[in-house]
Predict the structure.
Amino acid sequence: MRGWLSAFALALATACNATSADSQPKRTAPAPPPTPSNVVIPARLPSAPGEFAPSLVVVTGAQAKASGPDAAQTRGELLSDSESCSACHADAAAQWGASAHSFASFGNPIYRANIELARTKLGKAASRHCGGCHDMPLVVDGFLTAASPVPAADLRAHSGVTCRLCHGMSSATNDGNASYVWNAKDLDAPVLTDPASVAKHKAAASVRKLGDDMCISCHRGFLSPDMGMPAHLLGIDEPTAWRSSAYTGNGAMRMDKVEQQTCISCHMAKEPASKDELGAHDGKFASHRFVGAHTWMAAMRGDVEHLQKTQAKLIGAASIDVAAARYADGTWATPAETTVLRANQRIEFDVVMRNLLVGHRFPGGVMDMHDTWIELAVRDAQGKVLAQSGQAHAADPNDTDAHVLKSYIADDDGQLLLEHEIPSFRALIGNHTIGPRDSAVVRYGWVTPAELPAGGVTVTAILRHRSRSLVEQAGICKAVRSKVGAAFIHGAQGARMVSIDACAVQPITEIARHEIRLGTALANARPAWERGYEHGMALTAVVSERLDEARVVLAAARLLAPAGEAGARPRAMIDVQLAWVAAKQGRVDDALALVQAVRAVVQANKWPEPPVLSFIAADALARVWHWPEAVAPARAFTEAAPLNTMAWVMYSRVLGSVGDNAGALDAAVRGLTIAPRDPDLLRSQAVALAGLGRPEAQAALAAFERFRTPDAAADVRIACARTNPVCARERELGHSHELRTPATVGTRKQK
């Protein structure tokens, strides 16, 4: 029956020509011309794991086979040896020793609790899914699959991502799940007085040839049937958001002008070097702290310097704005300072956050584990809190009121999973992290008191960050107090001479704050048009029934833009968002007219044309099935944004819909080179192959079915929303929270 259904699905999809794609040509390379039908394009199927399944890691080199107990140094011991590197690279070694990379293995109480759960529920072999990136010294020496426990006092259990791992990689791909090749041959130590020896060492240890794929190989992760999971679920995925952003010149959602950044330029910024750092150039070297957002690991080790640097990276990474207020009759007060209060009146405040500086989603990494939240408070002139949301979150593990920037995952029964319980992951309920340069909006409802306070009212919004939730920390704290947990804490002391306290209070970082006084027109630090632009941009992502709200807000923002030449770019930026609204509402002519108007402004000012213009045109036409007209703008989008996954998804879908199966296959395959398991791209490939009568069609369909959204996901979301008010609220973007008086704070608990 399943085989018949698969064949029927493929035939139906072929008949409807509904496909998708994605690719990885160079940034400056143009998209290919239409592919001749006589050219045979090889299908691109996802790589299968090998010796260290379910991870994709491959080990080669002189010591590729197990070294054995009589060897002078096993492969794992070789990987764990940072001391020999520190002789010439003192600064890099010291910084690495403070980084999350060096505490990626069992010496990290957070990670140990998570992987031990996976080992218990899925089996020891399945834990190599984690180990390929976190535990290579243990993986290559067989500890993760051994019958005996992982040794708590062994350095290999406390080494994480080491010098010799990264600098010993011979190649890497962007598949993820440890998709790199590690050369087990030892790096020859250079003779410092011999330039040829030094040059040879530098060439062998250089990672420049790998570029960002070295980072991507581990910072893209997914769960799959290879590790005993019933379905594929995407986990960490920094590269898709970054490659599709303005930071690579491939942005597709707005006009955005930022300095281009890579993983390395952002997380390994140059800093002054000491005389003992022989890897320095012109007195500087690339930081090996890999600073991101992991404040807790630094704090539990008492590393004040690393904590301060991490918090400095977080402060200002995103903004928060009490942007506007909406009255019960649907009219707006924009900006929110102009709100006129009346007694017993319902008002809704729209609070807008924008990811300003992070090149991937914010917060990034493992998105269900982060704890970044909004605190909103309405106060009278004396500072008394009249209404609030999120104020209890910092101390209350049962808080369900705050808006948290995280993803929500549920199990088979629709129960929210709060402690990163990977073996039970079944469906994504909602993701409230924010893409690079994107904005998001949260609505807060408030019924004003019967007697308005004298002296006016202020509204304060604060965006705070903590590495992990209090629920997560409680579980970690309990684990480290067990006999096994205590052994690893003691082992870290012996192996790394470091003390770790996972039960200490986590640091909280204030990322951004905004305060307004209602009923005033006081000057704001940011232009009113910009606040309205970000608000409208956020509203374009909410449910379609509210899209006209975005149009009203953006139209008001346009009126606030500077006059004349100074307002040319602001007005064009706003018009791009208005074009998106028109496209999503099916107003094709309006969308195309706005695109042409912006293009004229771009050309008149001799600005580089933003990719978003072609994308909006293609999207608007595709939404109403004007496929032949959509071909040119879809192709132009791939030319302008060749690293953007959506570019190839759109192009392949459009080509398939006009019957160009060869072209659709080419676009899908190109897309799969940068997003190898994207379900839309896999589906496009399968449909195109079937349309061409190619024998690989069934294998391509099998790949699509393996990596597509699970059938049960919708049922899980419905079940969760039916029984859990948090699920019901958080499953939607742009949802609402009700502000509560202090007397009612803490009355609702997590189910």
Observations:
- The chain has three domains: 2-47+525-713, 58-223+253-260, 309-468+506-524+736-744.
- The chain has a mean pLDDT of 91.
